[in-house]
Design goal:
Structural class: mainly alpha
Radius of gyration: 16 Å
Number of helices: 3
Distance between the termini: 37 Å
Mean pLDDT: 78
Strand content: under 5%
Shape: globular
């Protein structure tokens, strides 16, 4: 996507969104949140290569709410700590 010239990136998105969203759907019931989390992942990847996700014709990336972000963090921590005991400190 960054180094190749696809003629229809939106079709690529439509064909592969379900696979990209699979992990997020396990921990998030909100489809809008899943969409934004997948877009955020893609945005971070293309940004690391000096590009901007806005240039690819994908759905618009919005800010992720604090609630969705915390749900994601907690579910990730839970899956990592599932086999043992974890003590987590959150400071604001």
């Amino acid at each position: 996507m960054v180094f190749c010239e696809f003629t229809n990136i939106r079709r690529l998105w439509d064909n592969h969104f379900d696979a990209m969203a699979e992990d997020y759907r396990r921990t998030h019931a909100n489809d809008a949140a899943v969409l934004q989390l997948v877009l955020k992942d893609i945005a971070n990847i293309v940004k690391s290569m000096g590009k901007d996700i806005k240039n690819y014709g994908l759905p618009e990336l919005h800010g992720i709410s604090l609630t969705v972000f915390l749900e994601h963090c907690i579910s990730t921590i839970y899956s990592v700590c599932n086999a043992g005991v974890c003590i987590i400190y959150i400071m604001f």
